[in-house]
Specification:
single chain; alpha/beta; Rossmann fold; seven-stranded mixed β-sheet; 7 strands; globular; binds S-adenosylmethionine; rRNA_ssu_MeTfrase_G; EC 2.1.1.-; cytoplasm; rRNA (guanine-N7-)-methyltransferase activity
Length: 281
């Protein structure tokens, strides 16, 4: 699939299940009161102790990362996409944490980011790695409006598109739209590993990978969910640390290769109905 296939509008708006109008005024002005209304952009200033890491991870795109940090700390807070308390931690907990994952992503490939929220990690990866074609998959209109505006303002429309809808819809190609597929499917803070695998493996090309940003519980999640992941066609989940020697702590990711293409997971209701038919035969 070329990157242009599903991109129709400014900022790469996809013709997904629900079109999003860039700059919808009702979205832009939906939260215009309260203390979060006038956040201080200075809170997004790169802390001096993180400057080396930021330069290492963003290189000559650091100015774009800084512009994104400011948008998150201002518009992102006003619109309720980032908690006000997160604003001073945008660089370490969000931008650097996500950018470190770029080392796990090969050159020039198609990345799908499931549940992007305010753009994490997908937009950060697109900033750090202009060689990647990135699709941000997010069902909530308030979030996709923000994403589309940020893509436009940062001039990332050539490599980033926004799909409004759920991962399951993106994978099946709802509303006559072609199914989306990526070489790598990323996700952070979206769901436990079994549900993530069910949503994300169908979005990966055969032998493509899910790269899930996880916390310290990664190993426990693998023990709990590896059987479910295998049933979904995934290989053995592996844990990797990203940004070792650059950020502290490094980012933990769980990777799952789509080793086998299996049919969609059957719901309990579907299993019951199938059981009923075979008994009647
Ligand atoms: C806790 S937020 C995390 C946002 C972002 N990844 C981050 O790390 O800040 C989870 C996001 O996943 C999205 N989401 C939930 N279910 C989804 C699905 N089935 N497909 C795509 N996105 C989904 C939600 O709308 C929400 O924006």
């Amino acid at each position: 699939m070329t990157h242009e296939d599903a991109a129709t509008g400014p900022g790469g708006t996809s013709p997904g299940p629900s079109a999003v109008r860039p700059g919808d005024p009702s979205e832009r002005f939906s939260r215009s009161s309260g203390t979060a209304d006038t956040p201080d952009p200075a809170v997004a200033t790169l802390p001096v102790e993180l400057a080396d890491a930021a330069r290492a991870l963003f290189g000559d795109r650091l100015d774009i990362a800084a512009a994104y940090a400011e948008l998150l700390a201002t518009d992102g807070v006003v619109r309720g996409l980032i908690g006000p308390r997160e604003a001073p931690r945008i660089w370490d907990r969000h931008l650097l944490n996500c950018a470190a994952v770029a080392e796990r992503i090969p050159e020039g490939i198609e990345v799908l980011d499931v549940g992007s929220g305010a753009g994490l990690p997908g937009l950060v990866l697109a900033i750090a790695r202009p060689d990647l074609a990135v699709t941000l998959i997010e069902p909530l209109a308030r979030r996709t409006s923000f994403l589309i505006e940020v893509v436009e303002r940062l001039g990332l429309g050539g490599s980033v598109r926004v799909f409004r809808g759920r991962a399951e819809e993106a994978a099946t190609g709802a509303n006559g739209m072609a199914p989306l597929r990526g070489d790598v499917v990323t996700a952070r803070a979206v769901a436990p590993l079994d549900r993530l695998a069910a949503w994300c493996l169908p979005l990966a090309v055969p032998n493509g990978r899910l790269v899930a940003l996880k916390g310290a519980s990664a190993a426990e999640e693998i023990v709990e969910h590896e059987a479910a992941v295998a049933k979904l066609g995934g290989g053995e989940p592996t844990v990797h640390l990203c940004g070792v020697g650059v950020i502290d702590p490094p980012t933990t990711v769980v990777e799952v290769v789509r080793e086998r293409v299996v049919g969609p997971a059957r719901t309990a209701a579907a299993k019951r109905s199938r059981g009923g038919r075979s008994r009647r035969r």
